[in-house]
Every structure is written in C-alpha cells, then in structure tokens.
Amino acid sequence: MRELIETVSRELATDSDSAASVIAALLGRKRYEVYMKGEIGDCIRAKVLSQLRQMKKGKPIEYITRTVQFRDHVLRIDPGVFIPRTETEYLIEMIHNRLRNHPKRILEIGIGCGVISIALASVYPNACIIATDVSAQAIANARQNIMDQALERRINLVQCSMYDCIADEFDLIVSNPPYIPRPRLNRLPRSVRKFEPILALDGGVHGVEFTQRLILEGKECLSDDGVMVFEIDDDAVAALTRFLDDHGIDSFFFLKDLFGRSRYLFIGA
Ligand SMILES: C[S@@+](CC[C@H](N)C(=O)[O-])C[C@H]1O[C@@H](n2cnc3c(N)ncnc32)[C@H](O)[C@@H]1O
C-alpha cells in the first residue's frame, strides 16, 4: 500500500495524505483504513492504477467512484449528470436561514442527481416536492437517489423543460440552473468541459437567460407568500437587478457564497 500511495502521490503531484484520500475514495474505504492496509492484491492495485489513468485524463473522481457527498447524504452520481458543488450545499444553508416560513410545497427546476430536493426534504420534513429536469439521464439518476433515501412518497419527478408540465402553486421555487455565460464555457477546466453535460452549464449568451425565464414564468406558479431562490453566476448581479427593476419586482436580494461571491438570488423572501 505504501508503494501505491507513493505512486498516486507522484502521478497526481500531491502529498501522500491527499494520495491516501484519493485511494480511499476509489476503494470506498476510510482514509485510516488505507494506512492500516499492508499488502494489497494485484487486482486492487491494477484497479487503482487504471482509475488513476482516467483521473489523469481529467475524469472527475465522482464519475469514477459514482458517489458524491452532499451535506449529510452520500448519493449516486452517474456520468453525464452534473456533479453537485459546494456552493449548492451552502444554498441549502441560506434557504434554511433566510426563509421565515417552512415551505410546504416546493418546486425544483433542473434536479440533476437530486441533491437540492433531497436536502430540502430533510430540512423541511413536512414538505412535498415536485422536481423537473429535461435530461432523461438526470431524472433516472435522481430517481435512484430518491428511492435509496426512501423519499419517493415526498419527491415527485417529471421529465420536462422548465415549467412546461407544472400547473400547481408552490411556496418555494428553487433552481440551480445552467448559468455559465456561453463565451466563458471554453475557459472552464478541461475536466468540466470534457466530462460534464453542456446542458447543465450553458446559460446562454449572457448567463442570465435561463434565470430570467425562471423568474417570469415562475411568478405564475408561486403562492401568495411564495419565494423563489436561484443560484446565479457572480457576474450576473447587475444584469439581473436591471431585469427585476424593469419587470417591477422590488422584493429581492442577493447573497454571497462561502467564497465571497454573489451566488444566490432570493425573490419575495
Ligand atoms: C447546474 S445543473 C444543477 C443540477 C442539480 N440541481 C445540482 O444543483 O447539482 C442544471 C440542471 O438543469 C437541467 N436543465 C437544463 N435545461 C433545462 C430545462 N430547460 N428544463 C429543466 N431542466 C433543465 C440540466 O439537465 C441539469 O440537470
């Protein structure tokens, strides 16, 4: 194992503790278990080295291990489905801290592998959630995670675009939509460009088009005290403020993420 740690550390140009963390993730073990292991079989060694080669080609470790950690949940992530980010974990924190009332009916647009809806189901145990995604792969991945968490009675999935299949009213509409401005897409890290779905990233020419539609069409599906919460690109604040002003929406604010970047838009809270 020591030799394997050294190899991973050298190949990934990282220290041995980080290398042990990578091996632990690849093998589905705890890090201390990696250190405790003396001899390892040829099969395990070959498996780790093959996965290491995939990582060196830029494949995200989440797509190799097929797992992602999100708050208290360890969830499945399928290749071709957007990998949840730390900023979105913090979005749940912001919603929990900022909403005065517990929403009973929640709509998520663009569920991906299911993290936001699953986390909100924990935070609001009395809420019923409807979640959409246009991607069949995302819906299948989310369905698996929802079943694994025994939440199928509380989270209903619909494959459709935006609000196309939605006729009800909601106390909370939430989305982490595609919001990368198109000119910036080719500057994303190679691992994102090559492996993550463009459908989850491409926010149109200015990165606000999707969010603008979410706001305008979402107003029709909002209850009287309803709130909309969207994750946004940190460069989008000025454009979205203008858009909200132009449409006579004055009850809104932006919040920053853990890295100090404007990342969340709350409307009606
Ligand atoms: C940035 S990902 C967010 C996924 C997940 N909610 C998360 O936070 O990890 C955006 C999601 O929106 C979905 N999407 C893109 N266009 C859509 C559309 N027109 N209607 C519904 N969902 C869409 C993508 O398939 C993707 O799963």
User: Secondary-structure element sequence?
Assistant: HHHHHEEHEHEHEEHHEHEE
How many extended strands?
Answer: 9
CATH topology of the largest domain: Rossmann fold
CATH architecture of the largest domain: 3-Layer(aba) Sandwich
Please state the overall shape, judged from the principal axes of the Cα atoms.
elongated
Distance from N terminus to C terminus (CA atoms, Å) equals: 53 Å
**CATH domain class name of the largest domain:** Alpha Beta
Q: Helical element count?
A: 11
Calculate the mean pLDDT score and round it.
95
Q: What value does the Rg take, in angstroms?
A: 20 Å
Whole-number count of domains: 2
Listed once per kind, the bound small molecules are:
S-adenosylmethionine
Structural class call reads alpha/beta
What proportion of the residues is helical, as a percent range? 40-55%
Biggest sheet: strands, sense, closure? Answer: 7 strands, mixed
Give the key terms.
269 residues; Rossmann fold; 2 domains; 7-stranded mixed beta sheet; two-stranded antiparallel sheet; binds S-adenosylmethionine
